[in-house]
Specification:
By secondary structure, the chain is α+β, with helices and mostly antiparallel strands. It contains 16 helices and seven strands.
């Protein structure tokens, strides 16, 4: 079974999380964090994404985003791949930096927007990275600092947050400060912020608590943070254009065929050779590209990609990583 596509369209709100592999660090020092926030700025400029709230933790990140003219997947690919290449080169490491795909939850902003802003910005406080709100005010690796110091991260959409906390009146930082400090340990809905409430599939949607496990397949489910009416509207919306959002096998097979045909032309190899598992240099280079494209662009699991390429799932993972190491990120 392949991984599903993202729920996304222009002006859609997403709570996005990306974690280090095996809970490992994705930032080792402030220079890593500084490079990452600069990278966010470049990606915002290139994709018109709106970053409303964010926090950098030692082994994971939280982002509250609103999609612009470019899909969420393009923004996240550029951001995370760029950081992985930078981090691996700087720290002389190899292998994947992030665990699986990033997790994105479609958000019903009318209900959850402000609570998500507060949840994300208070992450360092809850984790004990800072000890009090006064320390959080001067901690530079969250959107909270960006709101208090709007000249620091000019790519951050501070106006939208300030207007919401001011009741859509003139944006006022005082209203935001009162809001963020009104509940330092607010936690009644924290679980749903990280899991969503509903999951969508080809046959409808279910409450996440009806599933046997909220962890199994966490990165393959289309998740929604919203009420039942919102979940129903989203399902009806995407069901009208299922090929664009829900898994469609004919589209999937067509994309796979196009990838193999492209690799065949580019490297001058027959498709039979591309699927042969040979270790020759030219075939290996083509296979690296295919490993990356099948897993990241089409969304196949490692096991499914391995069957197509006649190598092991671990071979697919390593080949995809070698391809990532070779590509240059447009900064």
């Amino acid at each position: 079974m392949s991984r599903t596509c993202r729920l996304d369209w222009e002006n859609a709100f997403h709570h996005v999380m990306a974690r280090g592999i095996d809970k490992g660090l994705i930032f080792s020092d402030d220079s890593d964090r500084s490079d990452f926030v600069e990278r966010i700025g470049r990606c915002v400029e290139q994709t018109d994404m709106s970053v409303l709230a964010w926090s950098l933790m030692p082994n994971h990140i939280h982002l509250l985003l609103r999609t612009g003219r470019i899909p969420l997947a393009k923004f996240m690919h550029k951001l995370l791949t760029g950081h992985a290449v930078y981090f691996n080169k700087k720290h002389d490491r190899v292998g994947h930096l992030f665990q699986n795909r990033y997790l994105s939850i479609l958000v019903q902003s009318e209900i959850y927007f402000l609570e998500l802003v507060r949840y994300i910005h208070l992450n360092p406080l809850r984790a004990g990275i800072v000890k009090c709100m006064d320390m959080l005010d001067v901690y530079p690796w969250t959107g909270h600092y960006g709101l208090l110091n709007p000249e620091t991260y000019i790519w951050q959409d501070t106006r939208t947050v300030l207007k919401e906390t001011s009741g859509n009146k003139t944006a006022d930082i005082t209203d935001y400060q009162e809001f963020i400090r009104s509940s330092e340990v607010h936690c009644s809905t924290y679980d749903v912020f990280d899991t969503g409430i509903y999951v969508l599939g080809t046959s409808g949607f279910k409450c996440i608590h009806e599933l046997e496990s909220t962890k199994d397949g966490a990165h393959t489910r289309m998740r929604i943070l919203g009420n039942v009416d919102y979940a129903r509207r989203v399902y009806e919306k995407i069901n009208q254009n299922r090929a664009g959002v829900l898994r469609n096998r004919s589209v999937e097979h067509s994309r796979i065929d196009k990838l193999f045909n492209h690799a065949s032309r580019k490297w001058g190899l027959s498709i039979t050779l591309l699927r042969s598992g040979s270790r020759s240099r030219r075939i290996s280079r083509a296979r690296e590209y295919l490993s990356y494209a099948l897993t990241e662009e089409v969304g196949l699991r490692l096991t499914d990609s391995a069957k197509l390429l006649n190598i092991s799932p671990e071979g697919v993972r390593k080949s995809a990583h070698r391809y990532i190491d070779r590509i240059s990120i447009a900064d």
